[in-house]
Amino acid sequence: MASRRRTLLKVIILGDSGVGKTSLMNQYVNKKFSNQYKATIGADFLTKEVQFEDRLFTLQIWDTAGQERFQSLGVAFYRGADCCVLVYDVNSMKSFDNLNNWREEFLIQASPSDPDNFPFVLLGNKVDVDGGNSRVVSEKKAKAWCASKGNIPYFETSAKDGTNVEDAFQCIVKNALKNEPDEELKCACLDSEEEEKSPCSSNCRCQIIYRNYIGL
Ligand code: GDP
Ligand code: MG
């Protein structure tokens, strides 16, 4: 049997500005952390090749470029997401209280076919700060929120020292795969090095990803 095609997984990271979304992504993809605050980054997304249960995936992680403050993320940002990562700062109650808004916003904008079962993962970040002394959101409170939203997986992370970052992203990949389209809906053009041979339907994943990429 020929080896399986590589699959693209689109993951988006949402949460208040400053909670550490860009830092988590950089820690996971580049194993780097910076204390400097940078509201914008050059690229819309970072990619990482990941292996999961003997299959290779291209994980495409979409980050906001600071627009989260103005809540003006376009539909292209949300479209075709396989998993939505919600991030709050354990030292900020406001960032925790806003999780409902981010979740709702995602469900409205991405309008997944089965909203009740769409995979979310929650990260409580910055657990390293002040040795945990400035923490205001307890693990219990966060877990209760996750339970109330259909058992969302929860990780307490530090983008600074790397705590739980790898484990969290493993879980994110696993959950993104739950959303994998049926085999017959997949299209070879996504992974083909050659030019696309047969036209795809406008609902094909490759078209969705392409439209996302060029910002339509
Ligand atoms: P974003 O706006 O959600 O993308 O947040 P950033 O990734 O830009 O991080 C905001 C600030 O928090 C930056 O100064 C980071 O260095 C800092 N930061 C992010 N994650 C952590 C963390 O886990 N621990 C600590 N101590 N600082 C963090
Ligand atoms: Mg950022």
Automatic annotation (TrEMBL):
<keyword id="KW-0472">Membrane</keyword>
<comment type="similarity">
    <text>Belongs to the small GTPase superfamily. Rab family.</text>
</comment>
<dbReference type="GO" id="GO:0012505">
    <property type="term" value="C:endomembrane system"/>
</dbReference>
<dbReference type="GO" id="GO:0005525">
    <property type="term" value="F:GTP binding"/>
</dbReference>
<keyword id="KW-0547">Nucleotide-binding</keyword>
<keyword id="KW-0636">Prenylation</keyword>
<keyword id="KW-0449">Lipoprotein</keyword>
<dbReference type="Pfam" id="PF00071">
    <property type="entry name" value="Ras"/>
</dbReference>
<keyword id="KW-0653">Protein transport</keyword>
<keyword id="KW-0342">GTP-binding</keyword>
<protein>
    <recommendedName>
        <fullName>Ras-related protein Rab7</fullName>
    </recommendedName>
</protein>
<dbReference type="GO" id="GO:0003924">
    <property type="term" value="F:GTPase activity"/>
</dbReference>
<dbReference type="GO" id="GO:0005774">
    <property type="term" value="C:vacuolar membrane"/>
</dbReference>
<dbReference type="InterPro" id="IPR027417">
    <property type="entry name" value="P-loop_NTPase"/>
</dbReference>
<dbReference type="GO" id="GO:0015031">
    <property type="term" value="P:protein transport"/>
</dbReference>
<keyword id="KW-0813">Transport</keyword>
<dbReference type="InterPro" id="IPR001806">
    <property type="entry name" value="Small_GTPase"/>
</dbReference>
<dbReference type="InterPro" id="IPR005225">
    <property type="entry name" value="Small_GTP-bd"/>
</dbReference>
